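Researcher: Let's run the pair from yesterday's discussion. Sequence first, then tokens, for each.
Model: Starting with the first of the pair.
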Amino acid sequence: MQLIRCPWCGPREEVEFHYGGQADVAYPGNPADLTDRQWAEFLFYRDNPKGPFAERWNHTVGCRRWFNAVRDTRTYEFLATYLVGEPPPAAVRPEVTG
């Protein structure tokens, strides 16, 4: 069993958490102006890097709060957790892709 560090509750077993997708995906400023293709890209296209990746997680069985984590997609190792709206720690900041 892997432990994930919740920023509010501390380390807990991974079964207490729910994955929420890529972190820091900005909602479109005016979604009504998007074409169908642009809307589909916003909804469904996400980065899929090999290595450190910033993700959203929810502590569903604990405090029910959302937070961000940097996880290595090669090893599944959690490198850091941090609050939504904060930048990832510099030591584990994933590369931003196009």
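Model: Moving on to the second of the pair.
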Amino acid sequence: MSKSTFSVLGADLKVKGDIDASADLHIDGRVEGDVACVSLVQGESGEIVGGVRAESARLAGTVRGTISVRDLVVLKSARIHGDVHYDALTIEQGAQVDGRFSPRTANADDATVVSLAAS
């Protein structure tokens, strides 16, 4: 059995392809592909062009794709372009989200269309 690890993709890295991490992941660089991990922390300079699947995520950069996370925190510097599926959700004032929010257990018909922008 492997111990929990923490992987970092620095701001100078650009990855093309899917990432499937069995532990925690910190992304400051650009990923063109889907990201799946236990816990995701995205820095302000981070950009993900693809889907995100995780138990928990703290997003501060840009995501262009569908997000499915149990416990999601969207920080004020975040820019989300895509649908968001969650169990618990926190959004800081100033975050920009252009997409559909829905609890992961809800039907698609119950989704709420939201477009938030900093004031």
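Researcher: Give me one sentence on the second I can quote.
Model: The two ends are 48 Å apart (CA to CA).
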